[in-house]
Design goal:
This protein has about 160 residues and is an alpha+beta fold. The chain has four helices and six strands. Strands 1, 2, 3 and 4 form a four-stranded antiparallel beta sheet that branches. β5, α2 and β6 form a beta-alpha-beta unit. α1 runs parallel beside α2. The longest helix is centred in the last third of the chain and has 21 residues.
């Protein structure tokens, strides 16, 4: 599963961009998780990059680390031919867009989509990731991976 999250930044500086959807000047975290919700890869970039433009960066990095992965689930923000063409350049990927039914009223749980949202909730449980306090992109990305390692070690320790 792939998704992004806009995160408010502090006044520490670093790369930031304007997210028109949220109307804030932030950074975005793009993550790919497995079907259990464990982090596979993460990329942090300025918020002015749309989801369908940021996804090829994440998929390109995942391709070399996990060459057996081939199928990606995504939400409606990733729909379009531009992303499909970018994915075919990086390998033999298929993307499945999970959309909400037009006839549904109120809140409904979308299949597969809740997994990546749960991962964001797990990561935001760490105080350091509630807001982006980092000056560099590399440091912000490292904190995401450290939070993921912490989550995995707690899961292993509790049977």
């Amino acid at each position: 599963m792939i998704d992004s999250q806009s995160v408010k930044t502090t006044e520490s500086g670093g790369i930031r961009g304007y997210d028109a959807g949220k109307k804030t000047k932030d950074r975005k975290r793009h993550i790919i998780t497995d079907t259990n919700g464990f982090l596979v890869h993460a990329v942090v970039h300025s918020a002015d990059i749309q989801d369908r433009d940021g996804a090829p960066m994440v998929v390109k990095d995942v391709r070399y680390s996990f060459p057996w992965l081939r199928h990606v689930f995504a939400d409606g923000g990733y729909a379009g031919d531009k992303l499909r063409q970018a994915l075919t350049k990086t390998g033999d990927w298929t993307i499945e867009i999970i959309k909400r039914s037009d006839h549904a009223k109120g809140f409904i749980v979308l299949p597969r989509r809740w997994v990546v949202e749960r991962t964001f909730a797990w990561l935001n449980g760490n105080r350091r990731l509630a807001k982006d306090f980092e000056h560099t992109i590399a440091s912000a990305t490292a904190w995401i991976f450290m939070a993921s390692v912490q989550l995995l070690t707690r899961r292993i320790a509790k049977p």
